[in-house]
């Protein structure tokens, strides 16, 4: 029993578990700081693990880091127009020591925003801001290196050509201090630009990574454009082969020849360690060794196929022929392949499927068969994304599927795109009628609790009221409503206040009206405060909206966190015992 740990002197461990459950709930974490010194210390370490990713639009943490600079480096900043008065003279904690996640592009972005919002060089020209950003980037890396941080996640993202300079600066420091990355557990290499000739020392860095870093558990390779560099390809082979405890690997976009990488998986040390593999936007054309490779992966627990190409009958047959269970957890399709192949795939893997979605390009007949097959073979769906409907019958097929899944369903997203209607010659009144059916029927079939519900529809006020009345017994942690009605747009906020604010059945709310200026409820400070009085946190639609790809990554990341703290979610008795 968790509570017995109290008597064994394990109170800090239990509090750490409690705090981990609030990860990404930043307002709650800030409240935890005020409980007592122990809670404060544990919470601060979590908040400062990855401040560059916190979406709070507050970049003052940069100047807190700069407090660790010596006088010589502070003088350098002053020469670039950054006054020392911006840097606090004293800090309570050694904040750089808490860092565990570094993403080069996010660091650059945060520093640029800090330069514009907080520093004294607001009126400077672009070149001055660029020069100071590059200097601060280098100084931050220097601070982290000098503090001997225990880095877990290291991500190199090159999105623009300007990122080449930052890559070169970071690599130069890493090569001088190779211990900085020796113990990383998660490495991501993302390259959207084609030219690597401007990346000085890339050979040396990749050789260092592929020869010394053998404790990586997660690898993520993402190439937006076709990569023809043989060195990059060889590096990927080497780093995979070197790993002794590789548990997760993710391939995204134009990954170097997938056939060769799969062969590498077959011949590497990961046969008895690899548990998760994800394919995102990759092309399976001419892949003929899929069965052979997956037969050799002995402990694979999770396979994700997310908007990939060329899922031909021949490729699906390779999956069907695998003698082991093929534990497909995610299947998102932009275009449906042959329905017979889809049926064979679900017969093989439907019992494992948890996340599913498909684009608007599938025809009505195919979609009807699709819903029927999912209802027959898939009973554990947790995340369901629907792009729209052709007619009322297709809505009822989808809703039968939702009822069949029952309490397993946690995330539901229904988007009715105007573009979808145009493409299929649907008039606005036809689309509104279909949206009306959705709102009239949906509230009656939802499970008693949902983690996330996103309704992006053309909404009439009376229809929304019916949905809110029918769903009063449903607790929705994150509710997103986006009204895409252009003509005859009605004020539906009063219904949201009446049925959501006063009933307290929602924890996070996002509401946006597309065709109104400042149509996002989050932009109304008075309304945000009003909802807060009822313990409902209003967030912007874009911030609360879940991208299916990011959701899958987050699930795997969250599992890592639970493993790290030694267990699952605490129950209320454990939490109350710790607090008292």
Describe the structure.
This protein is α/β, with parallel strands linked by helices and 580 residues long. It has a domain at 410-546. Helix content is 45%, strand content 14%. The protein is built from 24 helices and 15 strands. The chain has helices at 11-20, 26-32, 37-47, 61-66, 71-79, 104-117, 126-146, 163-176, 202-212, 230-242, 258-267, 290-295, 313-321, 339-349, 364-377, 392-405, 418-423, 428-445, 461-470, 493-501, 525-532, 541-544, 548-565, 572-579; strands at 101-103, 153-158, 186-191, 218-223, 248-253, 276-280, 302-306, 328-333, 355-358, 383-386, 411-415, 449-457, 475-483, 506-513, 537-538. It has a 15-stranded parallel β-sheet with strand order 1-2-3-4-5-6-7-8-9-10-11-12-13-14-15, with helices on both faces. Helix 6 (104-117) crosses helix 7 (126-146), helix 14 (339-349) runs parallel beside helix 15 (364-377) and helix 15 packs parallel to helix 16 (392-405). The protein is globular. Mean pLDDT is 82; it is low at 4-9, 419-424 and 561-580.
Count every helix, treating DSSP H or I runs of 4 or more residues as helices: 24
Helix fraction bin: 40-55%
- If strands are numbered along the chain, what order do they take across the biggest sheet? 1-2-3-4-5-6-7-8-9-10-11-12-13-14-15
Distance between the termini: 17 Å
Structural class: alpha/beta
Count of beta strands: 15
Strand content: 5-15%
């Amino acid at each position: 029993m968790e509570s017995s740990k109290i008597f064994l002197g394990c109170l800090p461990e239990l509090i750490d578990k409690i705090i981990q459950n609030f990860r990404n709930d930043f307002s709650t974490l800030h409240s935890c700081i005020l409980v007592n010194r122990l809670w404060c210390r544990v919470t601060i370490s979590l908040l400062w693990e990855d401040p560059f990713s916190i979406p709070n639009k507050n970049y003052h943490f940069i100047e807190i880091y700069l407090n660790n600079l010596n006088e010589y480096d502070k003088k350098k900043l002053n020469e670039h127009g950054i006054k020392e008065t911006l840097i606090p003279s004293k800090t309570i904690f050694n904040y750089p020591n808490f860092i565990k996640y570094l993403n080069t592009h996010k660091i650059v972005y945060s520093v640029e925003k800090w330069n514009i919002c907080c520093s004294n060089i607001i009126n400077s020209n672009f070149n001055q801001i660029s020069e100071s950003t590059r200097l601060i980037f280098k100084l931050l890396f220097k601070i982290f290196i000098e503090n001997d941080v225990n880095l877990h996640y290291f991500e190199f993202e090159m999105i623009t050509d300007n990122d080449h300079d930052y890559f070169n600066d970071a690599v130069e420091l890493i090569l001088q201090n190779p211990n900085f990355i020796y113990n990383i557990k998660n490495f991501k290499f993302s390259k959207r630009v084609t030219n690597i000739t401007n990346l000085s020392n890339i050979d040396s860095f990749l050789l260092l990574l592929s020869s010394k870093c053998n404790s990586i558990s997660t690898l993520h390779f993402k190439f937006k454009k076709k990569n023809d560099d043989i060195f990059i390809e060889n590096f990927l082979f080497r780093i995979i082969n070197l790993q002794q405890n590789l548990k997760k690997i993710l391939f995204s976009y134009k990954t170097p020849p997938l056939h060769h990488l799969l062969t590498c998986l077959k011949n590497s040390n990961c046969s008895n360690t690899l548990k998760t593999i994800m394919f995102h936007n990759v092309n399976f054309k001419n892949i003929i060794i899929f069965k052979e490779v997956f037969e050799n992966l002995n402990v694979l627990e999770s396979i994700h196929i997310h908007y990939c190409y060329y899922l031909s009958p021949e490729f699906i047959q390779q999956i069907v022929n695998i003698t082991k269970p093929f534990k497909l957890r995610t299947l998102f399709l932009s275009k449906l392949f042959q329905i017979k192949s889809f049926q064979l795939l679900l017969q093989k893997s439907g019992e494992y499927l948890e996340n599913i979605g498909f684009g608007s390009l599938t025809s009505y007949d195919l979609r009807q068969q699709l819903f029927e097959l999912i209802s027959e073979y898939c009973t554990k769906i947790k995340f369901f994304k629907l792009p729209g409907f052709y007619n009322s019958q297709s809505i009822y097929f989808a809703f039968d599927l939702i009822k069949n899944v029952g309490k397993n369903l946690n995330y539901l997203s229904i988007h009715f795109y105007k573009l979808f209607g145009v493409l299929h010659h649907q008039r606005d009144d036809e689309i509104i009628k279909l949206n009306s059916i959705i709102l009239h029927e949906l509230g009656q079939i939802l499970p008693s609790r949902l983690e996330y519900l996103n309704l992006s529809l053309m909404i009439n006020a009376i229809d929304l009221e019916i949905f809110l009345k029918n769903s009063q017994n449903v607790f929705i942690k994150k509710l997103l409503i986006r009204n895409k009605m252009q003509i005859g747009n009605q004020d539906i906020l009063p219904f949201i206040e009446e049925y959501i604010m006063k009933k307290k059945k929602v924890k996070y709310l996002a509401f946006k009206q597309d065709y109104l200026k400042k149509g996002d409820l989050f932009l109304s400070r008075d309304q945000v405060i009003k909802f807060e009085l009822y313990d409902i946190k209003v967030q912007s639609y874009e911030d609360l909206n879940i991208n299916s790809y990011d959701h899958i990554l987050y699930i795997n990341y969250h599992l890592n966190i639970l493993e790290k703290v030694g267990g699952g979610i605490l129950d209320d008795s454990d939490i109350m015992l710790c607090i008292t």
